[in-house]
Amino acid sequence: MRKSFLALCALTLLCGCKRDRVITDTVSVNDWIYDRMKEEYLWSAQMRPLAETDRSLTPTDFFDTYIRYRQSPSVPLESDLYGDRFSAILFTGQTATRASASDDAAFGFGFEARQFVSGDQVLCGQVIYVHKGSPAERAGLRRGDCFDVLNGEAMPILQSRYRQILQGGKVTLKVYYPEERTISLVAQSYDDDPVLFDTIYLDAPRPVGYVVYNRFAEGGDGRYDRELEDLFARFRTAGVQDLILDLRYNGGGELTAARYLASLIVRRDCLGKVFIYKERNHSFGKPDAFESEAFLSAGQVDANLDAERLFVLTSGNTASASELVIHALKPYYGTGMTVIGRRTRGKNLGGITITNRRYEWELHPVTIRVYNCEKVSGYEAGIAPDVERDEFVGSGSSWTPGPTSSWNIVPFGDPTDPLLGEALDRLGGRAAVSTLLRPGTLNDTKSPAAGLVPPVECRMVLDLPEREVSEGRIVVE
Q1: Residue 430: what pLDDT?
Q2: Nearest to 452, CA basis, from 21, 141, 32, 35
Q3: Is 374 within a domain?
Q4: Which of 62, 258, 335, 409 would you label with 109, given CA atoms 20 to 30 Å apart?
Q5: Residue 83 CB: number of other CB atoms within 10 A?
Q6: DSSP code of 141?
Q7: Helix, strand, or coil here: 224?
Q8: Residues 217 and 79 in one domain
């Protein structure tokens, strides 16, 4: 089932605690926050001594004032590239107003704001993807749909307002393009398969595999990993040697799932070699003490594609575990790997979730910094594409969606998609790939075809909180 925070998997550390009363006094809560962050936080050595802090502050202010590492405190947090932009503290008590990490109900689509007016007001939204089996798909929402009314409120509206609306359990959208209609949605649980779309192009000089992978998740009992391995087995059976991996809308997820996907892709002679290195607080600034994590071995992954050429499609929403996969594979592929699209988000960090039944707070500290096999990190400002392309068909700056609009986007798998088409051109030309292994998928309105969700900055995120590289640990005290 859908999880709002993708750290909810894998290893759970249980500290035997009885169901004690909930502790709410501010000083005690802040002491707990400090102790747990001191133990796990990547920048724990930079934390001020507890005696020098004001423990009477609200937990959120205490966290931001005395815990969160800032290298450049004078700039906005989002611009402090080498500080901690990603750790979070969430209130989970009865008066919490946002979705908690255990919520699994969602509308099942993502979108982007396509234009802003008066600084903070959103003029309209465009659906970028729709999850299979979700309320959005069942209601007929599709990739490319544009809407300008939310719950009866005509846009432009403030970003804070549309987020408030979309965090509720019900929403009504007025779609004005490509045809006018009203879509009413109720958030529900559904099976959120990370693969939004896949196909094989048969008419290229040799078969080309294409997969849109939306988040890194193993699924219950590793089910999503098994389904992904089945997909790669089909690629192998079809003779695929060149892969196009679409990570445009993938904001991250579980580190274990990222390693699994990379092991399915990488050249066979790289299996078992170093995938990444992890820097923790006890090895901070000491490369010789970094922890290594290897690709799976040949005996652990039967459907390794042994891809000869790899094309990765990216956007500003490509983040965290997606960036990790790109950064980890690049040294092994060199010129055999091409990144096409826009600069990625810039998140070379990962973390865990910490909860305690006695406190109404949930901690999401950054606990690792990620390095590739050459012990290089350094993509805090994002990974620059080798070939810069926008996903809109055509070019232009005005927002006028229509049959000839420069802002149109096409269904997944359509060779006229500028990013996909660029990759196909480099593999022999998009004109040669009219035949698909699964004919008809491009025009199937029930295939995944719509929307993205920006996090709290420029992506409008329906699945809060933001995804990240999760170590797969929830520390439950």
Answers
A1: 67
A2: 141
A3: yes
A4: 258
A5: 19
A6: -
A7: helix
A8: no
pLDDT band at 158 (very low <50, low <70, confident <90, very high): confident
Residue (of 139, 237, 209, 168) closest to 446 by Cα position: 139
Kindly state the tokens that stand for 431. 């004109």
DSSP type of residue 164: H
**Side-chain half-sphere exposure of 384, counting CA atoms within 13 A:** 3
Question: pLDDT digits over 431-450, tens only?
Answer: 555 445 443 333 332 222 22
What is the DSSP track for 284-341? Answer: TT-GGGPEEEEPPPTTT-TT----SEEEEEE-TT--THHHHHHHHHHHHHGGGEEEEE
Q: Are 96 and 204 in the same domain?
A: no
Place of tokens 């903070």: 120
Contact present, 387 and 338 (Cβ < 8 Å): yes
- The CATH number of residue 321's host domain is 3.90.226.10
Tokens of 159: 């970003």
Which positions ≥6 away from 115 have C-beta within 8 Å? 122, 123, 124, 399
CA triple 446-448-449, angle to 5 deg: 100
Q: Which domain range does residue 59 map to?
A: 11-101+469-476
**In 3-state terms, what secondary structure has residue 39?**
helix
pLDDT digits (tens, 9 = 90+) for 34-69: 999 999 999 999 999 999 999 999 999 999 999 999
* Residue 245, in any domain of the structure: yes
